[in-house]
Amino acid sequence: MINRKEIKNVLLVIESPRQTDHSLNTMPPLGLLYLDAVLEKNGFNSRIIDANCGSYDIDIVKDYDLIGFSVFCSNVELSFEKISYIRKHYPQKNIVIGGPQSSLYSKEYLANPDINAIFIGESENNLIKYLTAVNDEDIKGVYFRQDSNSGFKFNGLSTDFEDLNALPLPSYHKVDLNKYKLFPLNQKPFAGILTSRGCTYKCSFCYHNMGFKWRPRSPKNIVDEIEYLSKTLKVKEICIVDDNFTFDKKRVLEICYLIQKRDIKLKFQLENGVRVDLCDEDVVRSLSEIGVWLLCFAPESGNAESLKKMQKGLELEKIKAVVECCRKYKIRTYAFYMIGFPWESRKDILNTIDYSNSLGTDFAHFSRFTVFPNTPIVQMLKGHFSFPDPYKDISLLSSNVNVENMHLLTVEDLNALIKVCFRKFYCKADKILLLLRTTPLAVLFKVVIYAFKTKNI
């Protein structure tokens, strides 16, 4: 194994899912873009490979000392195939993994002999410490081998990255933004930005990969990045991917003010689920004035009792009021739902379908519920589940459920109900016309193929 302190050249890789037709969207990999920027700032030579944008020759690793893989539940299989290949053909390379899957299944991956280090949570500081620390005790948030033959050492979790303004701009210039795709989308090319990290809410199904403390960037810092994307990289649309962009109303209004003051003309969408209880008319109006054309909400269920068990903390009627407000300001809306919670009967799922139609959002997506380790709902379910195989891909948008249903609904029953969800929502004249008006035919064709491949219709 190459000594950590001798590493100069770093290759960061994000693999694609094995079944690429089960992935409708590909986003610029913000996690790797931040890591690359921090590496470059600290004097390392770093390169990013995103296999979602095209194939690559794995033997390129010969030119690098450390190869880091960003592992998600959707790209596990190819990630570990490539790791195995590198270890076999380039045994001295330092191979590390990070990303949500690494944090969720770190104990399972400790048994993998091909890995030199496993990064937990946010890794900008941890990676630099791993590469530069004189004292191994200073390395936090990483399971790491001190040499090729040793077991893993762990010095405990690191603290969260507190001052996000101190981070350099993500290395957007290292990827081709024209190659990424998103549905729905208003303009290309687009980029994603993260204006805060962490979430204070305690939804029982969520792992909270970035912690429970909400850490915002300043409005000026955010708008500087937006202006760079617009004027230097010629980005036409920005997708804000925060868990809680609207957590601080004053900050949201200040961001909107600065965008208008600098006369930045872009389209925006908030695609990660905006809390409706933090989205009043002042916020919606201000967002519409800067070019926000799409807001996404996550009701998750049309059943008040399910929302209570999820610890979602939302009222169904409040969601309707915000959707109406968006309609007033000509902002399109998208809602996300999950079905297959173990306590849900067929009637409960049909209630969610009816609610999704009554809510009147422009778009909706229905996912199967999947339970992951270290989430609060594990205790609630008391064994009515099996965790996904940490070495097998799953798609949260098309996977079979891994939870036993207490009302004796089978996997086949739930897969049939997911079809009912999509058909009842989209197989209507107004929704079909909306898709035709807002979506290029080539993209719409891919959406239809995706729906058939994932067996959603």
| Strand order of the biggest β-sheet | 2-1-3-4-5-6-7
The major beta sheet can be summarized as: 7 strands, mixed
Low-confidence stretches: none
SSE arrangement, N to C: EHEEHEHHEHEEEEEHEHEHEHHEHEHHHH
User: How many beta-strand runs?
Assistant: 15
Cα gyration radius (Å): 22 Å
Instruction: Give the DSSP E fraction (strand runs of 2 or more residues).
Output: 15-25%
The amount of helix comes to: 25-40%
Tell the overall outline.
globular
| Tally of contiguous helical segments | 15
Structural class: alpha/beta
Q: How far do the termini sit from each other?
A: 49 Å
Mean pLDDT: 92
Describe it:
- By secondary structure, this protein is an alpha/beta fold.
- 34% of the residues lie in helices and 16% in strands.
- It has 15 helices and 15 strands.
- The chain has a seven-stranded mixed beta sheet, with helices on both faces.
- Helix 6 packs parallel to helix 7, helix 7 runs parallel beside helix 8 and helix 11 packs parallel to helix 13.
- The protein is globular and about 60 Å long.
- It starts with 8 loop residues before the first strand and ends with a helix.
